[in-house]
Structures are given as structure tokens and as C-alpha cells.
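FAQ: What does the model actually see?

It sees only this:
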Amino acid sequence: NFNPPAATCGKVCVVEVEEIVPAGTLDPDHIHLPGIYVHRIIQGEHEKRIEQRTTRPTNKGSSAQGEDL
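And it is asked to produce this:
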């Protein structure tokens, strides 16, 4: 995790968050950057896009040696 070293390289550190919650709500092990390095907080207004894996069905009965690979 290079977040703390990267945050100390600049004069101001701006973080973008999905949601602002009260202190003590989050598990300390899930925090990526300690608050001492944060100078500005921006709550994002964009929708969170979730990636979906798209696969094609396998051809049962044909060998996989060179066909459509």
C-alpha cells in the first residue's frame, strides 16, 4: 500500500469518498490513508459502475486444440 508515501509527496492531499460517515464507524484495517494526511475531502456524485464478467458458453464435444482460441 503506497497511499501514505504518495500522500506525503505533495503539499495538499485530496481524497474522493463515496460516503461520509461518523468517526469510529469504519474498521481501522479497512482505512487506506490515515486522516492525518488528508487536507480536503470530496464526496463523489457519480454512479458506481460495477464490472461484470461476460463469458461465452463452452462447446461440449469439441476439442479445445486450436478451435476458436
